[in-house]
Amino acid sequence: xxxFDTLRAVGITAKITFxxxxxxxxxxxxxxxxxxxxxxWGQNMLRRAGAEIHVRGLExxxxxxxxxxxxxxxxxYDVPSVYCxxxxxxxxxxxxxxxxxxxxxxxxxxAGFIKVDRGKREKAIESLRASKDLLQGGTRVxxxxxxxxxKTGRLGEFKSxxxxxxxxxxxxxxxxxxxxxxxxxxxxSLIVSPGARVEITLLPPIDAPSYGQAxxxxxxxxxxxxxxxxxxxx
Length: 234
Hints:
By secondary structure, this protein is α/β, with parallel strands linked by helices. It has a single domain, classed as 3-Layer(aba) Sandwich (Glycerol-3-phosphate (1)-acyltransferase). It has helices at residues 3-25, 31-48, 78-85, 104-111, 121-136, 161-169, 181-184, 216-230; strands at residues 51-56, 67-71, 90-95, 114-116, 140-143, 172-179, 196-202. Helix 1 runs antiparallel to helix 2 (31-48), helix 1 packs across helix 4 (104-111) and helix 2 (31-48) packs across helix 3 (78-85).
């Protein structure tokens, strides 16, 4: 467990942050460029951390279908893991604080990531609209419905934002579980611990539109139950 491993992770992130920021300024950034950089970033983040990634359930991901991907959240390493595991174009919904980081935040916006301000209803609605536009354009949207990393490893309560996104865009939800990333980087640490087995399970999609807004809370419960069951928490 060394500071060097953490600095190496920062360096890998910088390698895609700077060109993405620059391309965004000149309006020369294509979605394909972003896809390639995110895949490269995810693979190198895990490889440099000495992690083994094992993905199950790829047969549950329909080709070309825009989906709202929902997972548990244990570590910052969940993010590169998602870009290694989920096929197709995918962008994430992230808290507003990340977009305040110099260069990094601007690069996230240029790449098409969605900023959510949970404290302001009007801003939250804007993020919902942006997510709907991405989904209608064929992009998958990943969100961690717990809203923050679990401190205990156990699945927390779900917030409703991602479910509004799925229902508003008439998109199905792809539940997913992630384990092992907390061994790489604990939620209360900035030090990477190399060598871990990261396991990702992609579960069968849930037809959110069939629930409708009237049954949103039931949808939230069902998605959480599926993820909790896969994590062995039921």
